[in-house]
Structure to design on (342 residues):
């Protein structure tokens, strides 16, 4: 697998074409996924290795992507830590016992992933065996700020008032929370690597709500510790949304590949991050609702911006949206391969 275009790009090596995979490539836009989802609730799907493996593999043949990513959810490790988690219909994740005091933080357990989320590891082993070296398998985790914000807010948030209030008013409690989460993330990602993940991605979906100075003080040391805890075993992709003000700090925090969203020109982002790191991104997911000639222009613009420099992995700037036309996703993968061929 050392010769896969995806892993070579992660290492900044020359490739014959730009590799492409897509966040949420296994998901609701595919009828194959929806047919399973009609029979099972979301958590059951995540906790059933056979189902998770099947959903992970669905896009591999259909789309022709250069990497698979395990089907799971970033919040799965929180249950073992003591969080009462529910995926409510039409509401997304709801946490019934949010973490808002020092006592709440002190009660949180640091889990052994093989004991608390064994279904993720089993799904990874199953998919890795099924792929038989055709393409690499990516594991992932939520990043500590994003996981902390879910735990404190109790679900999604617009302004993160409760999260930031804890951060500003009780910094020692905040750092204890981040330390516990970070230790869980290190253990979780290392367990995924042991189970067969050949690269891992750290998702920091909500960290873009922070100023650069707040990121440096309250987040960067913890992310850096996670990167050190993985220790270069496999390539690490460090991705965040709304992060154009944080790119240099994200690069400093670590990661072999920095994932960027569509709110910045990818060539400019790479220049700021530094060419010693690879870059991932960054098509606006809504472009996939456009006509294919519009999609092709957008793909070409991204490829032109990076200029065939080694180390680019094509992806969306966030996950595929529900109701995205599947034929456009198939066409996108073909466009990236065709237009980037060296």
């Amino acid at each position: 697998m050392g010769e896969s275009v995806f892993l070579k790009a992660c290492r900044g090596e020359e490739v014959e074409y730009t590799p492409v995979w897509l966040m949420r490539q296994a998901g609701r836009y595919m009828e194959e996924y929806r047919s399973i989802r009609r029979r099972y609730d979301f958590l059951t799907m995540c906790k059933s290795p056979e189902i998770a493996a099947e959903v992970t593999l669905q896009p591999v043949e259909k789309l022709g992507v250069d990497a698979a990513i395990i089907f799971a959810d970033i919040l799965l490790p929180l249950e073992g830590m003591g969080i009462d988690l529910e995926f409510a219909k039409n509401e997304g994740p709801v946490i019934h016992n949010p973490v808002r005091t020092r006592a709440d933080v002190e009660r949180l357990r640091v889990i052994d992933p093989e004991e608390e989320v064994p279904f993720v590891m089993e799904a990874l082993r199953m998919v890795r065996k099924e792929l038989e070296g055709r393409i690499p398998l990516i594991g992932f985790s939520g990043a500590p700020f994003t996981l902390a914000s879910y735990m404190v807010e109790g679900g999604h948030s617009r302004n993160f008032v409760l999260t930031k209030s804890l951060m500003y008013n009780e910094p020692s409690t905040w750092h204890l929370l981040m330390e516990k989460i970070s230790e869980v993330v290190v253990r979780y990602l290392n367990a995924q690597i042991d189970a067969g993940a050949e690269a891992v991605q750290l998702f920091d979906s909500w960290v873009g709500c922070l100023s650069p100075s707040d990121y440096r003080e309250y987040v960067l040391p913890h992310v850096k510790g996670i990167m050190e805890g993985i220790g270069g075993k496999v390539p690490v992709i460090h991705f965040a949304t709304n992060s154009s003000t944080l790119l240099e700090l994200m690069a400093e925090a670590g990661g072999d590949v920095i994932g960027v969203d569509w709110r910045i020109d990818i060539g400019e982002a790479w220049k700021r991050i530094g060419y010693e790191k690879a870059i991932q991104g960054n098509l606006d997911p809504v472009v996939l609702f456009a006509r294919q000639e519009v999609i092709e222009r957008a793909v070409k613009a991204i490829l032109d911006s990076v200029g065939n420099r080694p180390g680019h992995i094509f992806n969306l700037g966030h996950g595929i949206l529900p109701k995205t036309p599947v034929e456009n996703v198939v066409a996108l993968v073909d466009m990236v391969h065709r237009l980037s061929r060296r």
